[in-house]
Amino acid sequence: MLALEFVSTVRATRSGPVDTLSDVAGMTAWAREHAAGLGIGPGFTATEDLRREVVELRQAVRALFARAVAPDPASGADAHRLPGFAESLDLVNAAALAVPLAPRLEWPDAGAPVARTVPATEAAWSPRIRAALAASAIALLAGPERERLRTCPAPRCVLYFVKEHARQEWCSVGCGNRARAARHYHQHKAR
């Protein structure tokens, strides 16, 4: 899900928080990795202006995710730095409207038909990328997945995830292991 991948560009490692989009090289690499969802080619190269605009959009989407998981706590990565709800909602909606998107059917000679979402009009990279990201966030937040959106409660984790089954508590097996190890440590330390 592109929206989750997008907000997960802020994550935590053993050495602290990491922002994949902290520089133009990181933005370029992340965009190329998600080229199909963003409607860009493999030769795409980000600019500093695009990176700043995408990071601003990411913070707005993270603010909307924080609202979606309430009353549970928001991600600890940046909850104190998120823009306000109304401002975030306006920014996401404006980004989605900047470039109308439309489905396009592609049917290769030796394969099954595939639907891709593409810009309905020609547009510069920045509005195209931000429109695709905003549309993905809107689809997640307005769809049934919103009810299953969670913040990972594992120590040091700052990710959002969509709960796939009733017993899922963490975003990954690694986070579950880390949470259980921390709980075990605290139980035995108290003795």
TrEMBL record:
Q: Which residues form the Zinc finger CGNR domain?
A: 148-187
This protein is called Zinc finger CGNR domain-containing protein
Q: Name one Pfam family in it.
A: ABATE
Q: Which domain of life is it from?
A: Bacteria
